[in-house]
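From the shared-data thread, chain only:
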Amino acid sequence: MEPKNVLVVLANPEPSSFCHALASSARGALEAQGHCVTVSDLYAMGFNPVAGRHDFTGVADDSRFHYQTEQARAARENAFGEEIAREQQKVAEADIVVFVFPLWWGSPPAMLKGWFERVLAYGFAYVDGFRFQTGLFRGRRATFAVTTGGTPARFAPDGTYGPIEDILMPLRRLGLEYMGYEVSEPFVAYAAPRVDPQARQAYLDAFAAHAVAIASLPVAPVSREVHPLDLVPQDAWSRGG
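Structure, as tokens:
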């Protein structure tokens, strides 16, 4: 089995959280198999989730700030701020991206949403006309590890919250699959704060096995011989909105 580069994006502010334990378990199992694992612990890094002019070292338009246009310019001219450029480099090098986070108010923490908005920028992670099967990261893989306070019954089709797959759809379908990633089924640690130590250990072991199984699957290299923005007309990414 060829070693893979795995990026773990961890979004939980508490180092003793079960999310951190899951990330650690997966990292240990992957490294034991010879894979290279990088962890972006967003809270520990002090990552800024708020998008704005500070994302760029210059501007395309002084008079009106249009985020996608500024992202396109930065992608073309290597003009992203240091924080974003560093994370983009990790993404570019990763065969597999693993997201580990708690479910808060029916969605990932705002920290992770901000990472998506700032790092997975237009001109880097997606461009007009290249989505899903033609997405820029087709051939790469991704998965989630999610902790919930709710029990499995609450996430049943007839449960209070509904299926976890529906809750994660925006992140999976409209985020990662949109960019071309092959997304494995999510790993969910239901009611993580409520289960006994044996059940918690079972979750840790199962997620480690889940990560190793994904790393055993083939991936395809992402070709960047042509800049993504050369694939679309300039007016497609310079218009306002």
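The chain has one domain: 5-238.
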